Amino acid sequence: MSAKPPNPTRATAPSTPPTAPGTPRDLVGIGIGPANLSLAALAHGLPQHLQPLVTAFYEQRPAFHWHPGQLLEDAHLQVPHLADLVTLADPTSPWSYLNHLRDQQRLYPFYFGEQHRIPLADYDTYCRWVSDRLPALHYSHQVDAVRWNPQHALFEVDFTQLDADGEAEALGRTHTKNLALGVGTAPYVPEPLRPLADAPTVPVIHAADYLTHRERLLTADHITVIGSGQSGAEIFLDLLRARPARHEKLHWLARTEAFALREHSALGLEHLTPDHTRHFHALPEAVRDRLAPGQGRLHRGVDADTLAAIHDELYRRTRDGGWPDATLTPGVTVRTAGRLAGTKIELHLEHAEQATRSRLTTDAVILATGYRERPLDQLLAALDPHLHRDDTGRPRIDSCYRLALDPAITRTGSNIYVQNAERHTHGAGAHDLGLAAWRSATILNALTGATPYPLPTRTAFTTFGLPGPRGERTPPGPDGSHGTLVHLKG
Ligand SMILES: Cc1cc2nc3c(=O)[nH]c(=O)nc-3n(C[C@H](O)[C@H](O)[C@H](O)COP(=O)(O)OP(=O)(O)OC[C@H]3O[C@@H](n4cnc5c(N)ncnc54)[C@H](O)[C@@H]3O)c2cc1C
């Protein structure tokens, strides 16, 4: 599996003593995925009456590439193009998707094509277009450690510069008043399948690496796809279309009860608005933890077009009589897995509702088993004594996406902002591209203290929660004031 970081051989953070800063930055971003790219774009476009921010963003990969192993030809973004890097915070920004299309002379075909969702590959191209034009983005730079320098009241950021092979080339250090952590997520492999994932002789591939291994996978006699999310569905459809009728030899297994539709109603999706984020953040920690698993329904499942395309493709294959050799079974857990004779894989399956177990022999497995937040612990190890944690040891994060740090740090005006590591405090919207511009704007408003990006105070028709003891509502009304509903005791 190539889910490993680009430079596995790098040394751990150099334990050099704190140094005097050269030119400190106002903001250093760690990781350049859509989240920090959005922040870099909006930071670059601050209104002229404000002092420009001195920024630097570091990314361990050699160039901007968004999920390159999953850019299937027919795969589309699950959000409209308005959820680009900037538009929902600043529709006048030059870094919008529409301006990218204009620059590429594609605006009119886009308009006549009435595409409401854009291909994943187009989103990748758009982000690279932004990345190629923004200053102060440093690729092939892996950040190793962050620490606080009390003498200079700055964060020190240690990085390793990587060569073309991803090997350490040079070590460096920069100083900054503020940090934005945008290290994203890493492919997740369930425990029972981990021993298989590194087997060189049998292809067991995470969906993240699908396109790299597609040709080899297609030579396998029988293929199993595990996972019923959007990626699992897209990969299953791609394999199905590539196999001859009657000889598909495919299994699609899912732990979920059904190959289900993901939430797509406008009212349902209001759970991904800033209003809901604010409401969720204000709930007690224990309540948030209870609600979090249920929020998965907002991201899990498959869009209607992909489910319909799978059904159409299967149906087309029944035209001449007979059924395709494809087995689609939900409600199944893979308990354990092992190799058979070095070339085959045996999956031990369980159907809990039916209380049955069986074995499946297959020649290749694709794990469409999702992603998990990259842990921040190693990166922030030196800051541990300054970090405030919740009852289960996770970092506390305030409504402006700031880690709760010792006042000794924050009263100097320095902060660490997080992007996409705040699901436990901000809810399901944390990973949603539709909130990226909002979050970047919120961060820049807090960091500059000058509200360069005024944000709407109301973003949903749904009112989340009841009024508070003084009649205040969450969220505030469109004029910024709180409503007047009366709080009833009891
Ligand atoms: C195929 C696919 C399609 C998706 N489609 C949608 C969608 O339609 N709508 C939606 O809302 N969400 C979607 N998502 C989910 C989510 O929006 C994306 O995963 C998005 O890329 C998250 O952005 P990010 O910037 O937080 O993290 P990432 O894109 O993961 O970027 C983080 C970056 O940080 C770098 N990094 C990590 N550690 C370091 C370090 N120490 N030093 C330097 N660099 C580091 C990594 O190399 C990486 O490039 C999709 C996810 C996938 C996999």
Automatic annotation (TrEMBL):
Sample GO molecular function, one term: monooxygenase activity
Pathway membership, UniProt: Siderophore biosynthesis
Pfam families in alphabetical order: Lys_Orn_oxgnase
Record-annotated membrane-spanning stretches: none
Signal peptide per UniProt: none
The UniProt record lists the keyword Oxidoreductase: yes
Enzyme class: oxidoreductase
Similarity field: Belongs to the lysine N(6)-hydroxylase/L-ornithine N(5)-oxygenase family.
Catalytic activities: L-lysine + NADPH + O2 = N(6)-hydroxy-L-lysine + NADP(+) + H2O
Record keywords, A-Z: FAD, Flavoprotein, Monooxygenase, NADP, Oxidoreductase
Documented EC number(s): 1.14.13.59
Region of interest (Disordered), ranges: 1-26, 464-490
Cofactor(s) the record lists: FAD
Gene3D superfamilies according to UniProt: FAD/NAD(P)-binding domain
Name of this protein: L-lysine N6-monooxygenase MbtG
InterPro entries: FAD/NAD-bd_sf, Lys/Orn_oxygenase
Keyword NADP assigned: yes
